[in-house]
């Protein structure tokens, strides 16, 4: 009996001393109305996680749409700038065509004037034996006039080619910008040596900015010099440079607020003694003008 009783005591002690079972923790949202009624919202944690996922998804979608909108806007601006640049280039080419047509008309008038001066006076009656040589004489005279005109044109062409071949400097990467806060215009470009036979090249350079190619009163020279017939009158006032290969040139004019943006620029380069080395006309896109 004693063994049975002790055994029962041990079993009871073991059962009472065992740890209680852990329950799984759950969250419940309890809503209490002013009338005392309660509403229990179960799966509260799941609802919070779902709400956070939806919120982060909405933020990610908004950022993606903003990025796409920004890229599209930048692309549209770039296309508009290219269209404006092409339009300015077309106007520049049209003006160049008009200038070439005017030069062609002047050349034709000079040829006609020259031909009229070299015409043979009205011949007197000649004997019948000399009449046969009349056509031959006229042919020789016309050939001489044509040869002289062709020779003059060839000289001009050769002189132009020689000028291009003898160019010792060139310019590139022209940029023109406007700062509305300081009312200043800044011009940046690179001047480089194009003749490898020269060790160093020095001189002075000026830039003339033009809103059009007709009204000289609206043209601006940088550095500031007086313009006569659209060309700088003081070549010694240009920005001095001395290069072995190339050099960045920066010109700035303050207190300048153009009513319309400049669309053309002419870069002049002179030697220290005033001899012109380069005159280059370019169409530009002025940055900073709305």
What can you tell me about this protein's structure?
The protein contains three helices and 13 strands; from the N terminus they run αββααβββββββββββ. It has 290 residues and is an alpha+beta fold. It has two domains: 25-118; 169-287, Immunoglobulin-like. The longest helix is centred in the first third of the chain and has 74 residues, at 44-117. It is elongated, with a radius of gyration of 44 Å.
Overall body shape: elongated
CATH architectural label of the largest domain: Sandwich
- In terms of DSSP E residues, the strand content is 25-35%
What's the structural domain tally? 2
Q: Give the overall pLDDT as a whole number.
A: 77
H/E element sequence? HEEHHEEEEEEEEEEE
Q: Give the CATH level 1 class of the largest domain.
A: Mainly Beta
Rounded radius of gyration (Å): 44 Å
Helix content: 40-55%
Reported for the largest beta sheet, the result is: 5 strands, antiparallel
Record field, number of beta strands: 13
Distance between the termini: 110 Å
Q: What quaternary form is this?
A: single chain
CATH topology value of the largest domain:
Immunoglobulin-like
Structural class: alpha+beta
Query: Unreliable stretches, pLDDT < 50, 5 or more residues?
Result: 152-165
Question: How many helical stretches?
Answer: 3
């Amino acid at each position: 009996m004693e063994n049975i009783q002790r055994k029962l005591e041990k079993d009871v002690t073991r059962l009472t001393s065992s740890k209680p079972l852990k329950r799984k923790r759950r969250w419940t949202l309890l809503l209490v109305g002013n009338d005392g009624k309660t509403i229990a919202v179960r799966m509260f944690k799941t609802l919070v996680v779902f709400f956070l996922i939806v919120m982060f998804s909405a933020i990610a979608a908004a950022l993606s749409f903003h990025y796409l909108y920004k890229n599209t806007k930048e692309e549209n601006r770039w296309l508009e700038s290219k269209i404006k640049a092409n339009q300015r280039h077309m106007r520049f080419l049209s003006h160049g065509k008009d200038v070439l047509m005017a030069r062609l008309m002047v050349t034709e008038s000079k040829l006609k004037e020259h031909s009229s001066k070299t015409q043979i006076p009205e011949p007197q009656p000649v004997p019948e034996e000399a009449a046969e040589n009349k056509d031959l004489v006229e042919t020789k005279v016309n050939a001489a006039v044509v040869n002289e005109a062709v020779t003059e044109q060839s000289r001009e062409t050769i002189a132009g080619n020689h000028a291009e071949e003898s160019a010792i400097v060139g310019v590139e990467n022209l940029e023109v910008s406007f700062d509305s806060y300081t009312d200043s215009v800044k011009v940046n470009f690179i001047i480089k040596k194009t003749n490898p036979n020269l060790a160093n090249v020095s001189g002075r350079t000026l830039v003339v900015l033009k809103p059009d190619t007709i009204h000289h009163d609206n043209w601006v020279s940088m550095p500031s010099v007086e313009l006569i017939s659209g060309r700088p009158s003081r070549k010694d006032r240009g920005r001095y440079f001395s290069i072995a290969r190339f050099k960045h040139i920066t010109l700035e004019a303050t207190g300048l607020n153009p009513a319309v943006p400049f669309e053309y620029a002419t870069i002049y380069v002179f030697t220290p003694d005033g001899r012109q080395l380069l005159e280059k006309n370019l169409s530009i896109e002025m940055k900073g003008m709305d």
